[in-house]
Design goal:
- The structure is a homodimer.
- By secondary structure, chain A is an alpha+beta fold.
- Chain A is built from 15 helices and 31 strands.
- In chain A, the strands form 8 sheets. In chain A, strands 3, 7, 8, 9, 10, 11, 12, 21 and 24 form a 9-stranded mixed β-sheet that branches. Chain A has a 5-stranded mixed β-sheet with strand order 16-14-15-17-20, with helices on one face. In chain A, strands 28-27-29-30-31 form a 5-stranded mixed β-sheet, sandwiched between helices.
- In chain A, α12 links the parallel β27 and β28.
- In chain A, α12 crosses α15.
- The longest helix of chain A has 21 residues.
- Chain A is globular, with a radius of gyration of 29 Å.
- The model of chain A has no long low-confidence stretch (mean pLDDT 95).
Chain lengths: 579, 579
């Protein structure tokens, strides 16, 4: 393809703060159509097609059958699993012309069960896996970062069906490995798997595949000592309290206007670790209150809290009706209708400062083991912290990093087959519900993530395996007849060899041409100019500057092909074997 | 792939009247999820992937750039072209979580203009063509025939942009040829192009590509004499009247309860051709009446009527409020608020019978040239008829056939670029709106259409170029060790050679296995059994019975590959050259 023909404009002005969004906008990769809704120009679609080909190969290799589920589904299908009611506004609901309730597919567990329902009635059909690559719509309240978090996206989603947990686990390992292969083949072998919270998907064991980057939305907990990795949402928090020798008596202390942990700490000259803080939430369903006490230096992990109380929550907005003394709430002498919970961090702590449940006063000498009723339950409700204790190896080694989730795999269990009534007959004639796993990768987000981790100030540096074009020929002074002829010849030779080649033969300055080439991100570049011809050569260089030098004109096509192979081999060398 | 692993069940019972729907349901190709909404099992998805590959190759060959538009679009985009208001309920409208009006894409002219809008501001960027393969949703009131007419479907839609009508026409020819190539490559070179009505798309010149079949929804007018072809909707109707020697006087005749053309004709012993009939419609917008008079033997072409009055219409349901004498409506002495139109068939007709606008009476001797006001306009509002006059060559040669529309191409003109304000600067600095063309093919409908025209009583006969599997190995008595070993060896050899091979090694009867193979429709079949091994050979046969016989075991893989190449060559021989 010729650069002059690519639809889309490239420009220099910084457009956004997130670098992938900035460079992909500046490079003419996409255009916003609505909030979180994009059209993709041809460079992005070319990348997408290459990623889809990798996805198909890897899914087929783990015995996947490609199918296609609908984008628009009748609500009855989602009612049969109970999710039509349980999922929030991110599930877009509407009525069709006949007034029937419909939804836009944000995930396809129900559709997968519906498709398999009557055609897998005997154990002999198991296991099997079906997958699709299809458009999804999730009505995200906060679309951001270009293709990182959108409302409409292309996704590869796969669903496996099994007759035993062991069989699911065996398959889960294969899928896990397939995912490692997919990221490695797409040029991002640095993607790591972390344990995750299964959230609305149901099921117990799940992993997210994360690309670590400061602009990531997720917090990842990593132990460099033992290799433990978990999403913050799912990471057990282990806190240690060094007990004081002696429990001091509980006594009032005047704290006046000091309300926050910081204010009280400053006033009493103590660290936040020596306090007990109260955090108030409300249930989304009925705005009823949930009051959580934890050590003052920690933060509440809202995912754990949600899972524990089995109800979606939000930070309390109106505390006036809550029979609570805002800023002075404490666990002793508390009289409230709120659900009251205590975090594990309070267990074993001594001599804390906490609210006294009256204006302008706190308590000193709060000792949970003494001052809370016998049998008080301490629950894990806080976030792990940098330098905290690893739940796996027990060392004070935890690192907290940011990451973008570029895929996930779940052991769903019978969540959907039970609720939707899908059964099979076992060898002994029993009727059972199959056990499911599901496996997703968002294609657009993966593209943006690769850009996020593979770019320089001038543009994306696409890995050769997914680059929209593997090589770009820059013909400087293309109106020079010799240059144009030499460039045309190489272009045609590479086309004939099946290379994805981009050709810039515009009459523009070298600076302009290179700046466009940087934004288009072809990993290999050939420069042809009157100067190089005078030297009897072309210049071959890498977008990532890993190589660069003259090549002989007569061997140019072969040199380019060799270089492409070399780059491809380097990527494939990092791809683990299939299981 | 092994037959035992394909998800989906095959069965014998006739499921539907339309043969493609029947066979594709019986063969486990798809499953209904909702009205006009299907999930596709892997055989169909495999066909779809092959058709998509053909579509990409042919679109790329006419300089298309693949892009991706969203399924969900903000209503503002459709308001900018005026279609948010003008299109009926087939455009599905809904609100997102923020209350913003949204639509589901049923076509993407607006999205194409939005994508190109700010990146094609100068004449030097033209012409260009962008295309996508994406899911569409059209809220059809009457889904039918399996994948023939659905609400959700995968479509290839392309949009070209030009700076002159001549350039559009030149490109239109290339696209037309690309379409001929696509159908030929998909194994249906019998698809014909017919002139069509542009309908809601805007623009003037358009063609539909039609597969002729009795179950088609469209009526196609064909002249075998001169090759003229048009959709009935767009076909000019030419009627001839042989004038009587003498105009008889207009006089009342008592017809009592006789209301219809048939009843009146029977009573007065005349043919319907000797009558003038009245057909009453109402405008969808305000239910106001439109009254059309035409010769009694003809039918109103509602598309022409809609285009003429520029308003959607429906047959009148309530005629009581219409100041009309139902069953006795006539053009003479008529007093009505309805819009009154006269078809061309009345021009030159003599001595017709028509209603007298009073109960129980008709007129005899109605002579339009005498009895209608001077200057009465006669408009082409009826359907062409079998044996009618060809508008191209003038012979009484017209045939009316049924067809399925499997694609369409439109010269859109400036319909969208004007309304949406897309402009470019000409070489002389003028601002102009680009001229557009658009080009669509529904993938699922094409698959069903191929099945409709390529099947026998036992199943589809897929053309080798789009078959889900090119060859099926049937291992009869697969539990026989020698059979299984021989079949495995051939299976692996074909897999290694990159052949799409299906392998049935189930312990089922020959009848059962062949019946499944017929439904799966692989064009080439290899049968391996103890009997064939005893003869020292395998059996090679065609699904369409065009060949069959023994092949040597040692050359089996090569024989299969040769046969596949032969079948592929036969299809390619019918593909016209690119323009």
């Amino acid at each position: 393809m010729k650069v002059r023909n690519i639809l889309g404009e490239r420009f220099k002005e910084r457009a956004f703060d997130i670098e992938s969004q900035n460079l992909m906008t500046r490079g003419g990769y996409m255009k916003q159509v609505g909030n979180g809704i994009y059209s993709l120009f041809t460079p992005t679609k070319r990348i997408q097609n290459k990623i889809e080909a990798i996805l198909r190969e890897e899914m087929d290799a783990i015995d996947g059958q490609e199918v296609l589920f609908p984008v628009v589904m009748p609500a009855t299908l989602w009612q049969s699993s109970g999710r039509f009611e349980s999922i929030g506004k991110e599930l877009l609901r509407f009525k069709d012309r006949s007034g029937a309730d419909m939804v836009l597919g944000m995930t396809h567990e129900e559709a997968a069960v519906q498709l398999a329902m009557n055609v897998a009635g005997t154990y002999q059909k198991y296991p099997f896996m079906i997958y699709q690559i299809q458009t999804k719509f999730r009505d995200e309240p906060r679309a951001r970062g270009g293709l990182i978090r959108v409302r409409e996206f292309t996704m590869k989603d796969a669903y496996s069906f099994h007759t035993s947990q062991e069989d699911l686990e065996k398959y889960y390992e294969r899928a896990y490995r397939a995912y490692e292969r997919i990221y490695a083949r797409a040029g991002v072998p640095e993607v790591i798997a972390v344990k995750s919270d299964s959230g609305m998907m149901g099921g117990k064991v799940s992993h997210e595949f994360m690309l670590l980057t400061d602009i990531g939305e997720d917090s990842i907990v990593i132990c460099p000592e033992c290799g433990f990795r978990a999403n913050m949402e799912a990471c057990e928090a282990i806190t240690e309290n060094s007990a004081d020798a002696e429990m001091l008596p509980l006594e009032d202390v005047f704290t006046g206007d000091a309300k926050t942990i910081e204010e009280v700490g400053a006033l009493l000259n103590i660290t936040s670790k020596q306090t007990c803080k109260a955090v108030v939430y409300q249930r989304n369903s009925d705005d009823s209150y949930v009051l959580v006490f934890c050590r003052g230096d920690l933060e509440i992990n809202e995912t754990k809290l949600t899972n524990y109380i089995k109800s979606e929550i939000h930070p309390a907005v109106e505390i006036e009706n809550a029979d609570l003394t805002a800023g002075n709430i404490g666990p002793v002498g508390l009289s409230t209708k709120a659900t009251v919970l205590f975090d594990r961090s309070l267990c074993g702590a001594t001599n804390l400062v906490c609210g006294a449940n009256k204006e302008e006063y706190h308590f000193k000498g709060f000792n949970p083991s003494r001052d809370l009723p016998e049998g008080t339950e301490f629950i894990d409700l806080t976030k792990a912290v940098e330098g905290g204790v690893c739940p796996n190896c027990g060392k004070h080694s935890l690192n907290i990093r940011r990451g973008i989730e570029v895929g996930n795999i779940f052991q769903l269990g019978k969540r959907y087959t039970e609720s939707m009534g899908m059964t099979y007959d076992t060898e002994t004639g029993e009727r059972k519900n199959p056990i499911m796993g599901c496996y997703g990768i968002g294609v657009g987000r993966l593209i943006a993530s690769v850009c996020e981790s593979h770019h320089d100030d001038y543009g994306p540096i696409w890995p050769i395996t997914i680059a929209p074009w593997q090589v770009e020929i820059c013909a400087l002074r293309a109106n020079d007849e010799a240059v144009h002829a030499a460039a045309d010849k190489l272009y045609n030779a590479l086309l004939d060899a099946g290379v994805d080649v981009l050709y810039d033969d515009r009459s523009v300055s070298a600076g302009f041409m290179f700046s466009d080439a940087d934004l288009l991100g072809a990993p290999v570049r050939v420069v042809i100019s009157p100067k190089t011809l005078a030297r009897g050569c072309f210049e071959l260089s890498a977008r990532d500057k890993s190589f660069g030098g003259d090549i002989a004109i007569e061997d140019a096509a072969q040199s380019v092909i060799d270089k492409i192979r070399e780059l491809t081999d380097a990527i494939n060398a990092k791809v683990p074997e299939r299981l």
